[in-house]
User: What shape does this take?
Amino acid sequence: MSLTNDVKSLALELGADLVGVAPIERFEGAPEFYHPQGLLPQTKSVISIAIRHLHGLLVPQKNWVENFPYQTYGYGWLSHIRLNSVAFEVSRFLEDQGYITCPYPSFCQGAGAAISNRHVAVAAGVAKFGWHNLAMTPKFGSKQRYVTVLTTAELEADPMIEDELCDFEECFKCVDACPADAISRDEAVTFEIAGQPVRMAKLDKGKCGTCHGGRGEGFKRIESRIHVTFTGGGHCGMCLIHCPKGTYAPR
Ligand code: SF4
Ligand code: SF4
Assistant: This one.
């Protein structure tokens, strides 16, 4: 077994659903602030690890009944504890093999974060961006979260996903489902990851953040019962939940 296989096997044994590796060269051209070597200058490989959502905990969220299952198991616990725990143990394993390794927390995202776990997932061949700004995978569609591990080990790279996973211009279920009208139907943002073109909707992050936190205009459109059950920090997720993609669908 190669070191790469050992790392992937460990992550899967610890509960990961997907693991991929990007060589550091795939981050050439990334904004300086977001380059992995800004965090760990000796980084040679960047590992992306994903854990899927349970479909069952998305049901009460989708039906606007109760947000605690998604808020806890789909967001807080999944990001803050489970994914970070897997990344920590993978990092300990790599350091035991002699490689300096830095896990990057799953819940860190947005302007203040030095790494985008979603961009890493794309660079590592785990995911591809969809119109809603989320990273999608062939198996679970939009329904997983990610964590990142930076290491000085030179691991074997995974190929990036070539096929589009989103039905751009034909679907827009994420746009229709967004209670805050935060996802543009018409305006796109474009850039490249490792030379691969990326296109996604222009997202009003202010509207999304306000709605995601259980406050603001988005929630005024929702019936009174929801105001009671969707408390502050409600973690909306309607774009993720309504995206129909992914082959994995328990009955
Ligand atoms: S999380 Fe909610 S408010 Fe934010 S973009 Fe998705 S659907 Fe819209
Ligand atoms: S809901 Fe449709 S348009 Fe939105 S990301 Fe999913 S496949 Fe793409």
